[in-house]
Amino acid sequence: MERPNAVITGIGSYVPDYILTNEELSQMVDTTDEWIMTRIGIKERRILKGEDQGSSELGAKAVKNLLEKTNTSVDEVDLLLCATVTPDMHFPANANIISDKLGITKAFSFDINAGCSGFIYTLETARRYVESGMYKKVVVVGCEKMSAIVDYTDRATCPIFGDGAAAVMLEPSTDGMGIQDSILHSDGSGRKYLHMKAGGSQRPSTVENVKNREHYIYQDGKPVFKAAVSAMADTTLALMERNSITANDISWLVPHQANMRIIEAVAKRMDLAKEKVMINIQDFGNTTSATIPLCLAQWESQLKKGDNLILSAFGAGFTWGSIYLKWGYDGK
Length: 332
Description:
The protein has helices at 22-25, 33-39, 55-69, 94-102, 118-131, 207-211, 221-242, 260-269, 281-284, 291-299; strands at 5-14, 18-21, 44-47, 79-83, 108-112, 138-145, 163-173, 178-186, 194-196, 217-219, 252-255, 308-315, 319-326. The protein is α/β, with parallel strands linked by helices.
């Protein structure tokens, strides 16, 4: 029997209504619209407001949207995987909470934390479950409430991040569409440049480290920027060479939306025209595990069956990698 490929058969998404603009941010911290646009390329970002609202709320709405669009009942879902660095709580997993909110009771579910590479790591994991032949409908959701761990007194990091979620359905296919190849890497020595200092088991929460604002994102921007450009470009070019495809064969590059200069540098190394690069960082900022599927959701109507897509990301850990896939349906 021919082994099936894992193909994306639908997308759902959700972003909060509240828009935090650069102008409003400049009233909170010493920054300007010009400074943010020049260095990062972000104009606004969405923020989840309200008490007791965690990232699972975003994820559940994205998955609900996905199930409605694909006409899938909750009983048909075999597996739900959630990529996130901002779960509602240390445990249980966000995937469990999302499943409970939607009434998904016949699937198993768990989280994957790979920083901003979370979606592609989770997509690759889900791929293997589908290719095994045991699972027919697998949901992958990336959901983040980054505003919960952003220090809005730190102008180096607070303009970067936003909240949002998006989900895809993976199903088996034998028509040649779906995920073709992937290259994923990690290097734990990079963790010192991008992490949260306190709140884990190594440094549990104390009054002192809370007062010292050590429960927020810490980033040393220069080494992260340099590593992101080289890592994303290297894995993308390696995928292209391994699969004998050129820039002319690629329909879309779907890069993690961390910084406009990173995106431009990666596209340049690929010799890829900007018109073939999905970019929405200006509208949503860096939503970590949700950036790539949010791009897919926004461009869904322009995607055609057989389009060659490369997804590429870099995140805390360090984690990075790229996935090459053939799109499975006409978005319109």
